[in-house]
């Protein structure tokens, strides 16, 4: 947690001038389900750090209650003499001590990285991967970009009369009239990965092209991860492309909101060009991916 805090302070000025929360609110992140599993993974285990007396008010304290039985057990254990150490107990203590020394020794480069002004995020410093560095979101994005996947049945993807239809994901922004979803604590992993893909290019996220190939085949397994398939009960699309958009919320009381739109979007440009299954045959073969067969 200390490392995650340091990478934020070093990585983006908004953490230093306390303006990052102008763009993101932690409670909203949990309620909306956006990366909420990280929040819950921190909150739930932390309950064990509280003293019993602190959480005692959560349990009834009358005679025969759970709290009363636990207190009696603790008093009985306190009266009993400590057990004589056995051979197995001493072996376990020696193993614990050896493991502690090993972890401390392997942690030296991790601590040096923590103190370095060129701190590295999400890395391992030994082949055993027992100790690692972690730091989420060293910088904060001020705008939301999205990759919108589209398909067309037109034989010519460049034809001006080609009709491109949008695929809709279960939660990520797409349809301008669909309100933001609340999914906490569930996590739509594909939607999440598409959000990261929009930060970079498809060359850095080759799995997006794999996804496009599966859509070109109307693959049932992949389509089950989506909310809407414009080619359901129809022949698969002949072409699939990715379009890059910049999204922002419509203003309450504004023209877009009055028209029922939650979002406003502006096209940035193409994310990847129109692709057909024939185009992708060599691409799939070079990466040893199974070539999708149209349904």
UniProtKB/TrEMBL annotation:
Keywords on record: Endoplasmic reticulum, Membrane, Transmembrane, Transmembrane helix
Predominant subcellular localization, coarse grouping: endoplasmic reticulum
Superkingdom to which the source organism belongs: Eukaryota
InterPro entries: LMF (IPR009613), LMF1/2_C (IPR057433), LMF1/2_N (IPR057434)
Keyword NADP included in the entry's annotation: no
GO annotation (BP), single: protein maturation
Localization annotation: Endoplasmic reticulum membrane
Domain Lipase maturation factor 1/2 C-terminal positions: 130-273
Transmembrane feature ranges: 94-115
Membrane topology: Multi-pass membrane protein
Annotated source species: Myotis myotis (Greater mouse-eared bat)
Name of the protein in question: Lipase maturation factor
GO-annotated cellular components: endoplasmic reticulum membrane
Family from the record: Belongs to the lipase maturation factor family.
Residues in Lipase maturation factor 1/2 N-terminal domain copies: 1-26
Protein function: Involved in the maturation of specific proteins in the endoplasmic reticulum.
């Amino acid at each position: 947690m200390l490392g995650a805090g340091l990478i934020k302070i070093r990585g983006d000025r908004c953490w230093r001038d306390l303006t990052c929360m102008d763009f993101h609110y932690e409670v909203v992140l949990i309620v909306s389900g956006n990366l909420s599993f990280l929040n819950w993974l921190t909150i739930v285990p932390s309950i064990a750090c509280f003293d019993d007396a602190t959480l005692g008010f959560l349990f009834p304290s009358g005679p025969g209650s759970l709290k009363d039985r636990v207190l009696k057990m603790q008093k009985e254990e306190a009266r009993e003499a400590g057990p004589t150490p056995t051979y197995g107990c001493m072996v376990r203590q020696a193993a614990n001590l050896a493991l502690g020394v090993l972890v401390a020794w392997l942690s030296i480069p991790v601590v040096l990285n923590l103190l370095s002004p060129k701190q590295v995020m999400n890395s391992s410093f030994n082949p055993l991967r027992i100790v690692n560095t972690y730091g989420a979101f060293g910088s904060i994005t001020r705008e939301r970009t999205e990759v919108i996947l589209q398909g067309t049945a037109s034989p010519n993807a460049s034809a001006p009369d080609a009709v491109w239809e949008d695929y809709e994901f279960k939660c990520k922004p797409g349809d301008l009239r669909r309100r933001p979803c609340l999914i906490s604590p569930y996590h739509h992993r594909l939607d999440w990965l598409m959000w990261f893909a929009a930060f970079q290019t498809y060359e850095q996220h080759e799995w997006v092209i794999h996804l496009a190939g599966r859509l070109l085949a109307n693959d049932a397994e992949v389509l089950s991860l989506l909310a809407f398939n414009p080619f359901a009960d129809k022949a698969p699309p002949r072409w699939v492309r990715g379009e890059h958009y910049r999204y922002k919320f419509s203003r309450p009381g504004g023209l877009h909101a009055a028209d029922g739109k939650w979002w406003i979007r502006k096209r940035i440009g193409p994310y990847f060009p129109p692709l057909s299954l024939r185009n992708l045959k060599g691409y799939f073969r070079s990466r040893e991916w199974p070539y999708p067969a149209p349904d």
